[in-house]
Amino acid sequence: MALTNADQVIFEQVLGVRKMILNRPKQLNTLSYEMLRSMYEKSRAYEDDPTVKLVILKANGKVFCCGGDLASGYTYVQLGHWSFGASYYRKEFCLDYLLATYKKPLLAILDGSVIGGGVGISIHSTFRIVTENTIFAMPEVLIGAFPDVGASYFLSRLPGFFGEYVGLTGARLNGAEMLVFGLGTHFVPSKNLKSLEDALEKTVASFGSPSVATMSMIINKFAQVQVKSDSAYLRLDMINQCFCGESCEEILSSLEHLATQVQEKWVIDAITSMKSANPLGLKIFLRTIREGRSKNIEQCLETEYIAISNLIAGKISHNYYEGARAMLIDKDKKPKWVPSKLEDVTEEMVAKCFSRSFTEDDDWLPLQLPTKTRGTHVRASKL
């Protein structure tokens, strides 16, 4: 039986703790418009409620969240107008921004895959709990788009040029690697998660308003540190040498040169991914992450919204829809990108993706992020 809209996110209350539980396990907890709407409304209410001391974000099933519900979005746009897709991203980015600048302590339990939009709603949490089951990825360039949901902000804050590596290749990181790079704050074995939640609930009940430091001490009692010998952190120097390039072409050339010198799987995987990705999406992302290093989260989301709106409009390229068709609808895994090569993506094409060249006929609305009290709307991410 299909879940009703009300069942897609479960909201629970335990004294001063509020829980938002993603509940579409059969759909890999992909975010529908209704989920975004209800989470936004509840999150705003919790932030303004003086009785709420901690908000926990988690999910039912074996994954946390595998991103936005792009398959449904593709269908809606095909039946209606491209602006329907822009409406989805407006709601998603507003939720991302609200949680990025949240005034209350947030704890995200990332027990399973956290991909794309799932990263957007969790990456700015005060506590980001990873486990042996956690897999992190931003693979949007492989499905016709580019890493968004604030990726130009949080990926640009990673060490060196590791953010470029993650976003341009869709590389997957495990929980231990997330911890090393600061994408996670604590590694807790999944068997201990229930005990951790119970302990936090008791702490809130006992202290009323426990400090972040107090809650961190409680989490540390359940945490472990695990770093494998093949961790991406151990090859950061080589990643930096390749991904510091000024263009996608230069980065790919550096990888191909490195492949002649070392026999490492990650190099081959990176080359394969970049050559199979949407060339326009690669160049959009490289521009957003480079510019994102000097922007705040609000500015990054606004820039990404303009770019994704232009992709959805399909006036520059139809790769957004071709990626959805090949990877999510028909699932033939053989997208036919146009342009198909990096060298065929001109600077003019990329520039058009960042222009506000929308007309009244487009029925497009600008991104209006939620107003925050003075000082919070530009505060740094919790990364």
Walk me through this protein's architecture.
This protein has 383 residues and is an alpha/beta fold. It has helices at residues 33-48, 70-79, 83-100, 117-120, 151-154, 162-169, 175-181, 193-207, 212-220, 236-243, 248-259, 265-276, 279-292, 297-313, 319-329, 347-352, and strands spanning 9-14, 17-22, 54-59, 106-110, 113-115, 127-130, 135-137, 173-174, 186-187. The protein has a six-stranded mixed beta sheet, sandwiched between helices. Strand 1 and strand 2 form a beta hairpin. The longest helix is centred in the N-terminal third of the chain and has 18 residues, at 83-100.
Structure in a nutshell:
By secondary structure, this protein is an alpha/beta fold. Helix content is 45%, strand content 10%.
Structural class: alpha/beta
Order of helices and strands: EEHEHHEEHEEHHEHEHHHHHHHHH
Largest sheet: 6 strands, mixed
Number of helices: 16
Please give a handful of descriptors for the protein shown.
383 residues; three-stranded mixed sheet; six-stranded mixed sheet; 10% strand; disordered C terminus; alpha/beta
Spell out the blueprint of helices and strands.
Layout lengths: L8 E6 L2 E6 L10 H16 L5 E6 L10 H10 L3 H18 L5 E5 L2 E3 L1 H4 L6 E4 L4 E3 L13 H4 L7 H8 L3 E2 H7 L4 E2 L5 H15 L4 H9 L15 H8 L4 H12 L5 H12 L2 H14 L4 H17 L5 H11 L17 H6 L31
Parallel strand pairs: 2-3, 3-4, 4-6, 5-7, 6-9
Antiparallel strand pairs: 1-2, 7-8
